[in-house]
């Protein structure tokens, strides 16, 4: 890839950096609460319309994003025994580090 070519998609680091910088400036500006308030539905009819649109989007989804319902990891006391048995997802990202075996239907 030559110097003059532009990068698009997931590899567009310049655009990602610009977006991240703009987002950080917006959050740091203190205007988030006002923007959230301004984005709230103005009427009950608008709230119903938004709820219907959300339900339609969820109807087409395969499943709910598990990160939306995931509980926060429990805080561990300093000096706690590191050999203590934990379930995946508790504490640091054990669930991401552990490889899962394929299901029987995926073997073919």
Rounded Rg:
22 Å
SS content category = mainly alpha
Number of strands: 0
Helix content: 40-55%
- Low-confidence stretches are 93-99
Q: Estimate the strand proportion.
A: under 5%
Q: Could you state the order of secondary-structure elements as H and E?
A: HHHHH
Mean pLDDT: 75
Instruction: State the end-to-end distance.
Output: 38 Å
Main sheet, how many strands, which sense, barrel? none
Question: What count of helical segments does DSSP give?
Answer: 5
Shape: extended
3D structure, described in words:
The protein has 5 helices and no strands. With 108 residues, the protein is mainly alpha-helical. It has a domain at 11-57. The protein is extended, with a radius of gyration of 22 Å.
């Amino acid at each position: 890839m030559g110097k003059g070519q532009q990068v698009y998609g997931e590899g567009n680091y310049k655009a990602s950096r610009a977006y991240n910088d703009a987002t950080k400036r917006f959050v740091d500006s203190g205007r988030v609460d006002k923007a959230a308030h301004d984005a709230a539905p103005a009427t009950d009819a608008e709230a119903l319309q938004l709820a219907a649109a959300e339900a339609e989007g969820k109807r087409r989804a395969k499943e709910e994003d598990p990160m939306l319902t995931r509980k926060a990891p429990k805080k561990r006391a300093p000096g706690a025994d590191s050999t203590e048995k934990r379930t995946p997802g508790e504490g640091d990202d054990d669930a991401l580090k552990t490889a899962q075996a394929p299901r029987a239907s995926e073997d073919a």
